[in-house]
Amino acid sequence: MFAVIMTGGSGTRFWPVSRRQRPKQFLNITGKEPLVVETCNRLAPLARDEEMILVLGREHLDQARELFKGRPVHLLAEPAGRNTAPCMGLGALYAAHLGCTGPVAFLPADHFIGDRRAFVQALQAAGELASEGGIVTLGIVPNRPETGYGYIRRVAEDHRLVGDFKAYRVSRFVEKPDYDRACRYLSTGEYFWNAGIFVATPGTLLGAVRTHLPELYSGLMRLKEAFSRDRFDSELEGVYQEIEAVSFDYGVMEKTTEEVFVLPCHCAWSDVGSWRSLYELRQKDCDAHGNLVEGETTLVGCRESFVSAKGGRLVACLGLKDCLIVDTPDALLVADLDLSQDIRKIVEVLKKRRKKELL
Fold first, then answer.
1. Checking CA distances to 108, which of 54, 60, 154, 318 falls within 20 to 30 Å?
2. What are the residues facing 151 on neighbouring strands?
3. What letter does residue 20 receive in the DSSP assignment?
């Protein structure tokens, strides 16, 4: 199986640690390696290094080369971020160029998987189904009424067996719900979290792009001709100036009439989308009062707070509850831990103030 790892994105919700030049996927925040390296490593049972294609921003190419030095992964540098549909289309096109006609896993580079074995087994089953045609998405089985994720609704009784897995036909893709609606989704058992993980052959995926995003498909075909003519970079620049930024979910999956299946997956998944989600992921590292600390800190009378001291100085806290403090050499963040999804608003303010050195 080939794999296209989507390595773009700015990781603004992890500011001030995540920055434009070194975003979340290049940080070591959940384990021993940066997230993108961990993503590739967990795919090892399914894909060899030479079958892995990382689609990333041009400004991060040198970092990726350093991280994967000595490993024959393929690096495709986008001249500008254009969301997931162009990213996946470009990856599918390059996989086909490398001779791939079988299933390809398309997945983000910055997620956490607690149960690697279950994840690999689910991808393997999805690959078997995708080999027969259609697009398969992994649906994360929800364990709470989450409002921060999109959802996938299955057709209740329409399923196929793939080994030990049931793959259901998709009824529809649903945007992020409010809390009451998320509770209803959870109670029905018919909804899964949308992790943005898809499996399809290059031919199937590019065919869906041709049907629903014809302008993108036309640009990709221009690139196909450029692969063997030593003008790929210049052609890619021109194509990316013209194509629209659009997500694969919106541009293809919400419109397609082709076969789409969702395969339920229990793999202890997290998108590690905010400081709050990282705090929850690392509960075992908390002290007796529910505090998670990094670096040189002193906490007195604090509860259920996350304090990260990476600025080279002591961070002392008194009487805090549900607080987030992240200290770096050039910026200090103090926030309500429950509002960590909104940290991107701070980044937007800094952009308006043209504080480029802090972005």
1. 154
2. 174, 193
3. T
Cβ contact 82:244 at 8 Å = yes
CA gap 257, 268 in Å, rounded? 31
Give residue 20's identity as a one-letter amino acid code: R
Q: What angle do CA 253, 257, 262 make, to 5 degrees?
A: 55
Q: Give pLDDT, residue 158.
A: 77
Domain boundaries, the chain: 2-273, 278-358
Give the integer Cα–Cα distance in Å for 282 and 204.
Answer: 39
Closest CA to 75 of 99, 101, 104, 49: 49
At 184, list the tokens: 């209803």
Q: Which of 71, 70, 41, 75 is nearest to 57 (CA)?
A: 75
Helix 116-130 to helix 35-42 angle (10° resolution) is: 60
Task: Return d(Cα 316, Cα 337) in angstroms, integer.
Answer: 17
Q: Mind listing the pLDDT tens digit for each residue in 120-159?
A: 999 999 999 999 999 999 999 999 999 989 999 999 777 8
253-287 pLDDT per residue, tens: 988 877 899 999 999 999 999 999 999 999 999 99
Residue 256: predicted pLDDT: 83
Closest residue by Cα to residue 56 from 29, 73, 75: 75
**What's the mean pLDDT when you consider all of the chain?**
94
Q: Give 333's strand partners.
A: 326
pTM of the model: 0.94
Rounded Cα gap, residues 115 and 123, in angstroms: 13
Cα–Cα distance measured from residue 247 to residue 281, given in angstroms and rounded to the nearest whole number = 27
Query: Has domain 2-273 been given CATH number 3.90.550.10?
Result: yes
Is 114:267 a contact under the CB 8 Å cutoff? Answer: yes
